[in-house]
Structures
1.
Amino acid sequence: EIVLTQSPGTLSLSPGERATLTCRASQFVSSVYIAWYQQKRGQAPRLLIQGASTRAPGIPDRFSGSGSGTDFTLTISRLEPEDFAVYYCLRYGSSPLYTFGQGTKLEIK
Amino acid sequence: QITLKESGPTLVKPTQTLTLTCTFSGFSLSSNGVGVGWIRQPPGKALEWLALIYWDEDDRYSPSLKGRLTITKGSSENQVVLTMTNMDPVDTGTYYCAHKDESGNFDFWGQGSLVTVSS
């Protein structure tokens, strides 16, 4: 069973700074099947990145995804106040069909 | 525009069976490649995938919960139903349904339904 480990658990940054969030898989994962989600308090998750690097419709270009194999990264180039939230990576595959990471909380420093 | 909404009880007792309904619009569950999934989130904790039903009524379950879950199409063509048996307080959380696109992504989510398990 594939496990996704996100780091750091909490990231404290200021608006305007660059954020780098990591998702590491315990086994090889095709980049086609990696997605990133943003979840604000009290809201449902929102799809940000699909296929490891493709922004979902309507997602600002300050969000970017990269990676391959077992290591994937979500980068927010210049943090806006509305970007402070919890971020999850998700892998789609088999056994189990879907696996979420444990999340990274991005908080205002 | 795709929308989904969860409905069901807010409080269930331990050992009872939970039945949640996802009512959706803006897509057909008969369309090739489409699916509807259920995901839950205990208070303050991470997301956990539970189950998925495909357009052809094939289904998949989380291995850790497989024996307790059943996902089916509802009586209306725009509904999906999730049942979870033998509820326990650790099952307390927000339950979301979501649209799966042809690539496997959950691209649209419902607002979530908070379920508390308590006697």
2.
Amino acid sequence: AQKITQTQPGMFVQEKEAVTLDCTYDTSDPSYGLFWYKQPSSGEMIFLIYQGSYDQQNATEGRYSLNFQKARKSANLVISASQLGDSAMYFCAMREGPTSYDKVIFGPGTSLSVIP
Amino acid sequence: DGGITQSPKYLFRKEGQNVTLSCEQNLNHDAMYWYRQDPGQGLRLIYYSQIVNDFQKGDIAEGYSVSREKKESFPLTVTSAQKNPTAFYLCASRPRTSGIYNEQFFGPGTRLTVL
């Protein structure tokens, strides 16, 4: 069964606008971590933001924020003031812990295109 | 500069040949990982290692083998038993002692094409 779901295969956003990329996850472990990575066309994976299952506040890192809704098992990424350089694949990932804390599961990704 | 090196960036092999992908890190990280990425898809875990001389299978280990003789190195061998080896392979590392909250650091990847 798919543990990480990203329902938007492709998204378009106008430059300087905000965009939300969806991610839902499935786990029965109370302790887990959620990550978002960016993958430009070069192929490298760039870490963007992290949210812990026990964190009380939504994570923010510059223009990135994570809309964490624990009851809905949702961890959406919000990018504010989109830039042309934001065009890339975006992956949501989850690490379940503590017994499997080293295993990270990735979603299928969302392709974001920023339009000038 | 600290980081993860994967070589080569592009690799071509004939069907039926084994091929070894290199992954080296100078971050002093204990844990290392190998992922496979197919076009338009996410990353799937092949093998991971938490410590030298120890490693565990991931979700798609069949047809692959690894070794971890040194902390800095985690080479992946794609054997002839792997039915569809053409893919993008990413290596990652992480400091093991940090608990579950630290992100993985990724190398630049190797694109393997089997002809």
